[in-house]
Amino acid sequence: MWPLSPELLISIMKEFEIALPVGKALEKEQVLAAAAKAMGVPARNVAHYRILKRSLDARNEILYRYRIQSFASGEDYQEYHLDEYKDVSRSEPVLIVGAGPAGMFAALKLLSRGKKPVILERGKDVHQRKLDMAALSRNGTVDSDSNYCFGEGGAGTFSDGKLYTRSSKRGDIREVLYQLVSFGADPDILVDAHPHIGSDRLPAIVENIRKCIVEHGGEYHFGARVSDIVKRGDGSFDVFSADGRVWNAGKVILASGHSARDIYEMFDRKGWMIEAKGFALGVRVEHPQSLINRIQYHGRYQPYMPAAEYSFVTQVEGRGVFSFCMCPGGILVPSATAPGEVVLNGMSNSARNSKWANSGVVVSVEPEDYPEYAKFGALSLMHFQRDVEQSMFRYTGSVKAPAQRMMDFCRRVPSANLPVSSYHPGTVNAPLHELLPESVSRRLKYAFPDIGNKKMKGYYTNEALLLGVESRTSSPVRIPRDPETLEHVQISGLYPCGEGAGYSGGIVSSALDGINCASKI
């Protein structure tokens, strides 16, 4: 595919589709001929076109399907332009708690509106953060403020950079995708149906965003774990960090991420309204990538084809069981945010070329499922989530993951041995069917054979390894806000935002939520 250029970015006039075998290049002349046919005009009268979407279709012949817009000479069209950033060094500050997607894109929107973003990030910059993650994988040392969840860029920086949200109900996703391209992402993310950036490329993009914000007068403060937020009599906020620093501003965007349990505890302690929210919990499932390729390509995989991915959702006993954050050609990483817990996540580099495929397979959990935690009020499922993570650690005595072969798990029998895993800290042969909450384990037991028999022949196999626990799918707490102003329902000027507030899930939806909160300000 030739590089996309600004002159090809147009509004909708005609849409049509071209299908090509994977590995064959899409030629400009093909698009012009197809556009002319769709519009009923000579090819010379096709003035502009753009590729809307490229998707892989492996149902029969393995094809790339391109959906394209075009229009004829003389017809009006609008190119997409990003907002220009302003010098805000002398402007009114807005405090942003968290430098993940919601916080970063809120800051960029503030720049375009003439407000000064002041970002408070509990973790470190992307370069220093890598050292702490290496220590976590190598010797199990957890830095509670700098890990796979906390630090510049948030959890998504080292989780493949999947950009799967295509829904426009939250806002114009082009603002997010075009900004990412402007900061260094591959232009293919503008058209791919399942775009990803890669954990090897995201750190540089995140750093470029920071440089842009700082160059235009914004501020970044690392190692600034927020310990308290106080609203003053004049309506402004004092925001305190654990190391004694304090910042003041009239508006605060709270984009602290889905693992910032201390923020939820602060709200609970202060009597500020929060709510228990359902989330999902389960395991990471790791297959050989070659097996997933055979399944998804129906035995016709060739080396030039992209590593196959999958997704599924089913219902078992009234609860959803679904795949989550699937990483083709990826690896498993430790995502604990405190000592004494085991949490797993997956990531892929841009090439997606490891020999493993992994995905979370999780069960929906609601507050009423575990009445014994009701005594914790709005924090009920947060305590449940933490207890499960700590139970995994107690079994292994480290950040090594308790693991079991898939069919053994479903049959409720110990595994005689374990296959080699991509999880660098290592695995411990364990009865995961007993370690997981019984209602979660039972539903997974029924789901895996069902998926293997009905949706993905060969998926249900003892070649697959289950590792516990996948528990950071989303926040177990919601911070309620006014649907119109996006401010906290009790505290004007405070904007709960992103995954940590319970209003998004993933990089794009979190970025859009940050943009929306900044726009309200």
Task: Tell me about this structure.
Helix content is 27%, strand content 24%. By secondary structure, the protein is an alpha+beta fold. The strands form six sheets. The chain has a seven-stranded mixed β-sheet with strand order 13-14-17-12-20-18-19. Helix 2 (101-113) packs parallel to helix 13 (507-520) and helix 4 packs across helix 13. It is globular and about 70 Å long.
Features:
single chain; 521 residues; alpha+beta; seven-stranded mixed beta sheet; 13 helices; 22 strands; 24% strand; globular
Note the total helix count. 13
Question: Termini distance?
Answer: 40 Å
**Mean pLDDT across every amino acid position:** 93
Low-confidence stretches: 1-12
Backbone structural class: alpha+beta
Instruction: Please list the strands of the largest sheet in the order they lie side by side.
Output: 13-14-17-12-20-18-19
How are the secondary structure elements laid out?
Elements: E1 14-21, H1 28-39, E2 46-57, E3 63-72, E4 93-97, H2 101-113, E5 116-121, H3 126-139, H4 173-182, H5 202-215, E6 219-222, E7 226-231, E8 237-241, E9 246-249, E10 252-254, H6 261-270, E11 275-276, E12 279-288, H7 289-296, E13 313-316, E14 319-327, E15 331-334, E16 344-347, E17 356-365, H8 380-396, E18 401-405, H9 406-411, E19 427-429, H10 432-435, H11 438-454, E20 465-470, E21 477-478, E22 494-496, H12 498-501, H13 507-520
Parallel strand pairs: 4-5, 4-10, 5-6, 10-22, 18-19
Antiparallel strand pairs: 1-3, 2-3, 7-8, 8-9, 11-21, 12-17, 12-20, 13-14, 14-17, 15-16, 18-20
